[in-house]
Every structure is written in structure tokens, then in C-alpha cells.
């Protein structure tokens, strides 16, 4: 396949050149070869089922018991034989899905009976023996009928031909059949693509191993960790640039305005500019602290929460029994608590807040409870959705209970290990 070429028949079917490509023929070959696969699967299942029929119809007898024993042996062999059918199917699927079906490492001998993959292969064999032949046979009957319509001018040379309830005997009728057959063949090409595409997807779901899925999950987790680290590094860079650049220049400006105020004590403009510069410097310091407080870096989450509580204009009780945690976990938990306390001050009409942070095995659990009016709604634009997203980035979850009238309880759970 070239770059940008469809990898599956379901991708190809949406293209404008589908009918001129090889995909319709590949779908037809896949459907035709489904029939011998179905026969093999049906024989496999019949060996296990049919020997029990004498017992069911005639009652127990020596011959019936012997046949039943054969059925038991055949039934024990079904998983192993289904595995062989699955190998053929994985290769056959490449006709309509060029992506290889990966398999996990398989156990040997009797241990294979304990694998989920083995029993998924048995389920696939059951589908091959029951559903697949019905669908494939119905399609092939339609296909042969359409081909017969297209070849009708040649078929009526030796006499009239009966098709269903219609007898075709004249050249005009034959050419009408051909005219009907051409669009019918195009329609069947799309139908074949749909049938084989779904069948291939089902085969992939049942016959693929799980190692590739686990590898993808590990890669996603690693990517998420790299993303968190990148965000944290960028946050630290912004904090450093503000502290070493803008803040230092603002301090210098404030000092100069202060000196000018001393020299011009009656100048109200200079005095106002000096006061505004001091207020701006205080706001910038608060902003830098909120980007990443130094106490969080130096002393950890417990001390950072105490420092945060001291700056909230409400009575805040903090109970935090914590060791040092990974930086990303501490940062996420801190900013969740910070945003939650800000929301309490702005919206909750609370008189007191309680913050609890504890480690339970390898889980950091943080709860923020207030006695306010309740009714917190993530859809109301209070930042709760953003908090949930921040927690999700580090693999955690956020739970909220906020009935009207209060109290409101926000619970955050983040997987972690002590450092």
C-alpha cells in the first residue's frame, strides 16, 4: 500500500475510485473463502455435539455412551483446533484489512485452556459455523443472480430462461436484464465491502492479543507523564522569568517612585503612582506564588496547604498527614485545593472550611468540606470541570457532593507513591 492508501475495505469504500480498485474483488474472495472456513468450523462443532444425539433420542446404551465419550474427547480438542482455524483467519483477514492482527505470547499444552484468547477463538469458530455461512451464502446467491442478469443475452441463445417468476426469451428483455445487472453489480460491491469489513473487525476483536493493547496503555501513561512534566517545567520557567525579570523591574520602579515622592511630597500624581506600583508589586508576588509556591517545592504539600489556608479570608482547618509525594501529584493537589477554596470564598457563603489530606496505601485522598449554601454545578462556570481535568491528567478522579443548602464536599483521589 502506498502512503495515504486505505488500510481496510471500510476505509476504501468511501473513496471515489473504490469500484475501480482491487477492494471489491478482495471482498469477494474473502466471502467465497468464508464458506470452506465455515464448513471446517461446523465439522469441528459437530464432532462435539452429534455424538450426544443417541443418548438424547434413545436413552443410555453402551453404544450411546461410547459415542458420548467420543464427543467429550472431541469437545476437549475444540479449543486447540479452533486455534488453528484462528491462524488461518488471521491470514485471510489481510485480504480486507492490511493491518496485521497481533497475537500475545501463548501458553503451552494444557495451560492454553486457561487463556482468554483461546476461548475467544472458540467463540470465533462458533460464529464461523453459524452466522458467517448464512450471510456469505445469501450474498453469493445475489452475486450469481446479478452475474446471470448481466450475461442474459448469451444465456437466451439456446432458448428462454426463467429467472424467479420472469421468463426471458427476447433480446430486448435480455438487454434490459444486463442494464439492471450493471448497477446491481456496483451495489453488491459496496454490500460486499460492508459485510467483509464488519466480519474483519469482528475477527480482529476476537483474535487479537492483548499485549499490544497493554503496550498502548503504557505508552499513553508515559505520554501523559511527559505532558505533566512539560507543563510543570513551563510553569517553573514562567515563574522564574517573572521573578527575575518583571518583578525586579517593578521593584526598581517602585523604589524610584518612592524617592520621587520624597523629593516631591506635595505631588499627588507621584504619590498615586507610587501606591499603584506597590499594589501591582503585591499582586505580582501573589501571582508568582500561585504559579508555583516556593513552600510547595521546599517543604511539600502539607506545609503548602497550611500556608494557603492562612491567606484565605475564612476559618480554614487543615489536617494533612503526608510524606513527600511526586512533584506532579503535589502540584495538582495544591492547585485543586487552591481553586476550591477560591470558589468557596466567591460562591459558597460559607463560614468555615475543612481540608483533609491523607495517604491511603498508594492513593492521595484530599477532601474539602464547607458549610455553605451548596448547589455547586460543574456546568455553571465555577471551574469545577477544569479541576476534574487537572486531576485526570495525573491519573486521578474528582468526586463532588453539593446538595442545595449544603454542605459541599469535594473529594480528590490521585494515585501516588511516597518519595
From TrEMBL:
Top-level enzyme category: transferase
InterPro entries attached to this UniProt entry: HATPase_C_sf (IPR036890), HATPase_dom (IPR003594), Put_sensor_dom (IPR025828), Sensor_HK_TwoCompSys (IPR050482), Sig_transdc_His_kin_sub3_dim/P (IPR011712)
Catalytic activity of the protein: ATP + protein L-histidine = ADP + protein N-phospho-L-histidine
EC number: 2.7.13.3
Cited Pfam families: HATPase_c, HisKA_3, Sensor
Entry's transmembrane regions: 28-50, 62-82, 127-149
Gene Ontology CC annotations of this record: membrane
SMART domains from the UniProt entry: HATPase_c (SM00387)
GO terms of molecular function: ATP binding; phosphorelay sensor kinase activity; protein dimerization activity
Keywords annotated in UniProt: ATP-binding, Kinase, Membrane, Nucleotide-binding, Phosphoprotein, Transferase, Transmembrane, Transmembrane helix, Two-component regulatory system
Residue span(s) of domain Histidine kinase/HSP90-like ATPase: 328-418
Keyword Transmembrane helix part of the UniProt annotation: yes
Record-linked Gene3D superfamilies: 1.20.5.1930, Histidine kinase-like ATPase, C-terminal domain
PANTHER family: NITRATE/NITRITE SENSOR PROTEIN NARX-RELATED, NITRATE_NITRITE SENSOR PROTEIN NARQ
Protein name in UniProt: histidine kinase
Amino acid at each position: 500500500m502506498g502512503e495515504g492508501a486505505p488500510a481496510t475495505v471500510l476505509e476504501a469504500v468511501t473513496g471515489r475510485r473504490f469500484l475501480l480498485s482491487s477492494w471489491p474483488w478482495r471482498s469477494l474472495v474473502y466471502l467465497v473463502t468464508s464458506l470452506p472456513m465455515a464448513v471446517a468450523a461446523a465439522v469441528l462443532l459437530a464432532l462435539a455435539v452429534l455424538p450426544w444425539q443417541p443418548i438424547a433420542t434413545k436413552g443410555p446404551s453402551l453404544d450411546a455412551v461410547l459415542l458420548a465419550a467420543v464427543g467429550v474427547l472431541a469437545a476437549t480438542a475444540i479449543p486447540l483446533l479452533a486455534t488453528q482455524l484462528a491462524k488461518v483467519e488471521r491470514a485471510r483477514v489481510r485480504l480486507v484489512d492490511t493491518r496485521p492482527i497481533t497475537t500475545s505470547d501463548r501458553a503451552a499444552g494444557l495451560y492454553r485452556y486457561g487463556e482468554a484468547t483461546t476461548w475467544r477463538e472458540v467463540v470465533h469458530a462458533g460464529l464461523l459455523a453459524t452466522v458467517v455461512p448464512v450471510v456469505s451464502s445469501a450474498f453469493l446467491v445475489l452475486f450469481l443472480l446479478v452475474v446471470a442478469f448481466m450475461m442474459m443475452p448469451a444465456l437466451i441463445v439456446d432458448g428462454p430462461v426463467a429467472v424467479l417468476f420472469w421468463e426471458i426469451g427476447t433480446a430486448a428483455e435480455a438487454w434490459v436484464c444486463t442494464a439492471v445487472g450493471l448497477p446491481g453489480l456496483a451495489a453488491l460491491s459496496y454490500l460486499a465491502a460492508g459485510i467483509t469489513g464488519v466480519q474483519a473487525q469482528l475477527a480482529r476483536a476476537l483474535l487479537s492479543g492483548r499485549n499490544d493493547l497493554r503496550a498502548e496503555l503504557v505508552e499513553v501513561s508515559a505520554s501523559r507523564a511527559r505532558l505533566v512534566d512539560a507543563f510543570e517545567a513551563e510553569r517553573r520557567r514562567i515563574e522564574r522569568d517573572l521573578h527575575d525579570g518583571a518583578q525586579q523591574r517593578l521593584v526598581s520602579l517602585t523604589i524610584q517612585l518612592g524617592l520621587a515622592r520624597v523629593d516631591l511630597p506635595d505631588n499627588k500624581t507621584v504619590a498615586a503612582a507610587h501606591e499603584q506600583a506597590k499594589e501591582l508589586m503585591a499582586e505580582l508576588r501573589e501571582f508568582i506564588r500561585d504559579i508555583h509556591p516556593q513552600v510547595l517545592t521546599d517543604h511539600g504539600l502539607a506545609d503548602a496547604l497550611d500556608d494557603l489556608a492562612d491567606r484565605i479570608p475564612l476559618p480554614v482547618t487543615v489536617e494533612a498527614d503526608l510524606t513527600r509525594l511526586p512533584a506532579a501529584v503535589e502540584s495538582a493537589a495544591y492547585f485543586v485545593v487552591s481553586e476550591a477554596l477560591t470558589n468557596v470564598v466567591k460562591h459558597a457563603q460559607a463560614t468555615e472550611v475543612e481540608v483533609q489530606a491523607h495517604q491511603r496505601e498508594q492513593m492521595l485522598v484530599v477532601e474539602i468540606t464547607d458549610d455553605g449554601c451548596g448547589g455547586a454545578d460543574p456546568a455553571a462556570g465555577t471551574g469545577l470541570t477544569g479541576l476534574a481535568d487537572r486531576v485526570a491528567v495525573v491519573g486521578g478522579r474528582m468526586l463532588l457532593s453539593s446538595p442545595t443548602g449544603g454542605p459541599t464536599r469535594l473529594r480528590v483521589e490521585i494515585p501516588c507513591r511516597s518519595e
